[in-house]
Amino acid sequence: MKKIVFALIAIGFACSVQAQGILGGKVSGNFQIDMQLSREDSVIGAEKVNEKLLSNAFANINYNAGDFSAGFRFESYLNPILGFDNQYKGAGIPYRWASYKKDYMEITVGNYYEQFGNGLVFRSYEERNLGLDNAMDGVKVVAKPLSGLTFKGIIGKQRYYWEEIWKTDNGLVRGLDAEFSFNELIPCLGDKPTRITLGGSFVSVYEKAETKFVTIGEDYYKMQIPENIGAGAVRLDLSHKAFNLSAEYARKSQDPNAVNGYIYRNGEALLVKAGYSIKGFAVSLEAKRIDNMSFKSKRNETGNMLNVNYLPAITRQHAYSLMAMYPYATQVNGEMGLQADVMYKIKKNTLLGGKYGTDVKLNYSRVHSIDRQPIEGYALDKMGTEGYTSSFFKVGEDLYFEEVNVEINKKINKDLKLNLMYSYQSFNPVAFGHPEEPMVYANVFVADATYKINKRNSLRGEVQWLLTEQNYGEWAKGDWLQLTAEYNFAGKWFFALSDQWNYGNENGEKVHYYNVSLGSTYNTTRVALSYGKQRNGIICIGGVCREVPASNGLFVTISSSF
Questions:
Q1: What is the rounded CA–CA span in Å between residue 259 and residue 302?
Q2: The predicted structure's pLDDT at residue 297
Q3: pTM, whole model, 2 decimals?
Q4: Of 85, 136, 210, 548, which is most buried, counting CB atoms within 10 Å of its CB?
Q5: SS3 assignment, position 73
């Protein structure tokens, strides 16, 4: 309770000074509150909410004075809005920090976020829409003794909801990262068109071993659980004029845990990206292989919390709701995937380009399982063994996800813009732990038009259409149609109507998920209200997902910064 009172006083004080100088420094920050009222609706599966009103809120307060900076974040989940883990229930200050920078070194104590390379061995970050926060609590040091030479060192524990982590047995995370930019380190290379950067990381997690037994054949063994789990990575970034290439390879030591079924196989991951870009044309290619790379600071954790590393998805992240109905989640135990993007601008004053030119984007992605063969004499993934063997370049038999996506952006005239999209998706429910569900094949169409009435008013219309013969669970049955109309006026207000209709549902009611929204923006303050139905579904960001339950009611968001 004392923490809450202190936080409220600090927030009020910070707002009252309106970011003016204090003790030679400056206070800034932002806050947001989301409130939800949901009522029971048996048609869409919305369950009764006993407390009626749910809310998530946070406020960041930052202070900067020359080389010194500090701050804290107050959070409250009273109680968490639908879809957030109930372990967030409560209020307090889970994030506070102080940092000092002098000469070539910066030291941060308290909470911090950081990433090494692409995150294959370490990434501490927050994704509020997913309810994910694995902030570190400890010490971080960043040193730049020479131009082009950067060292990072971290030590601490990760946030786990409201637990007092230094009183828990969660693992201690320690890591080092080094990056060398040759063009900055070597003066004669400074103005060369070829740019080369090398980097390397090592991260170790210490967690006290537990007693665990396994039966293999007719024998009963005590497992030898390693207390120190190490993971290392090397990376290269290379560019030459219009070309660029980056690659990172990571390897993890034996780490029997709840996610991999307590096997002793080493983990590894490879991420490669290449691109070429000139005026009016760009192409990029990505490839990824992951094998047994779940890396957590608590071996018995299976959810999204306590991830030490981050394994990015290389599938397109969609903003349109029906395009994102079947999102892909990274398979940390094993996957092989590739993605290609081609972007081309048809020139102005041509038959297809018209007066303003036309942007065309083509995306293709495909993700498979990895090749997995049982170890001779043991069942596949047998606990207490190495689990399986795998040929590095051999693709597995199971298709997890595939998409072909085409997007056309066209400015018809000075007032009208048009965006057209088509996507063909193949989605395997096994990726979400539903092997009994059939493969889903979907065609999705989107047409989005914006008409500018004048400088302060515009009208937007949107049509989305999803066609599929398959059902996925209780929330995605057959064909869908969505219509949206949005009016922005006076440069500050917006009003929107939308209806998402499951007209292809042959096993139940053909539900209309209607929604009415109203909002206003004034300087840095935004208020938005919406009322309607939300279908049960899945939200994914960067390959990390959470399920969102059905709801029927009012949702309010208020945010501001100072």
A1: 6
A2: 97
A3: 0.91
A4: 136
A5: strand
148 — pLDDT class (breaks 50, 70, 90): very high
Q: Rounded CA gap, 498 and 486, in Å?
A: 9
pLDDT digit string, tens, across residues 321-340: 999 999 899 999 999 999 99
Name, in order, each residue with C-beta under 8 angstroms of 363's C-beta and a sequence gap of 6 or more: 316, 339, 340, 341, 342, 403, 404, 405, 406, 407
CA atoms within 13 A on the CB side of 1: 0
> Kind of pairing, strands 25-38 and 53-65?
antiparallel
| pLDDT score at 475 | 61
Q: Where are the beta strands (DSSP E) in 39-67?
A: 53-65
Give all strands (DSSP E) within 455-550, no chain letters.
457-468, 471-472, 476-477, 480-489, 493-501, 512-522, 525-534, 537-541, 544-548
Q: Which residues pair with 33 in a beta bridge?
A: 57, 558
DSSP state of 186: S
* 456-474 residues labelled b (16+ CB within 10 A) or e (exposed): eebebebebebebebbbee
Q: How far apart are CA 238 and CA 196, in angstroms?
A: 5
- The model's pLDDT over 55-107, given as tens digits with 9 standing for 90+, comes to 999 999 999 999 999 999 999 999 999 999 999 999 999 999 999 999 999 99
Q: Would you list the DSSP string of 89-126? A: -EEEEEEEEEEEEETTEEEEEEEE-EE-TTSSS-EE-E
What is the Cα–Cα distance from 150 to 184, expressed in whole angstroms? 11
- CA dihedral defined by 390, 392, 398, 401, rounded to 10 degrees? 140
DSSP class of residue 485 equals: E
**Which tokens sit at 378?**
């043991």
206-211 long-range Cβ contacts below 8 angstroms, 24+ apart: 206/171, 206/172, 206/174, 207/169, 207/170, 207/171, 207/172, 207/297, 207/298, 207/299, 208/169, 210/299, 210/300
pLDDT at 550: 92
Q: How far apart are CA 285 and CA 283, in angstroms?
A: 7
- In this prediction, residue 23 has a pLDDT band, given cuts at 50, 70 and 90, of low
Separation of alpha carbons 366 and 141, rounded Å:
39
Residues 136, 154 contacting (CB under 8 angstroms): yes
pLDDT at 474: 64
Helix then strand then coil, in percent of the chain rounded to 5, is 5, 55, 35
Which whole-number Å values give the CA distances from 80 to 56, 77, 304, 429, in the listed order? 6, 5, 17, 28
pLDDT at 218 over 80: no
Closest residue by Cα to residue 331 from 538, 547, 543: 543
100: Cα separation from own chain's centroid = 29
Q: Dig out the tokens for 221 from the structure.
A: 């063994």
Compute the distance between CA of residue 410 and CA of residue 353 in angstroms, rounded to an integer.
8
CA angle 330/331/333 to nearest 5° reads 145
528: amino acid identity, one letter = A
HSE value, Cβ hemisphere, 13 Å, CA-based, for 326: 30
Residue type, 155: I
Buried b (16+ CB within 10 A) or exposed e, 112-150: bbbbbbbbbbbbbeeeeebbbbbbbbbebebbeeeebeb
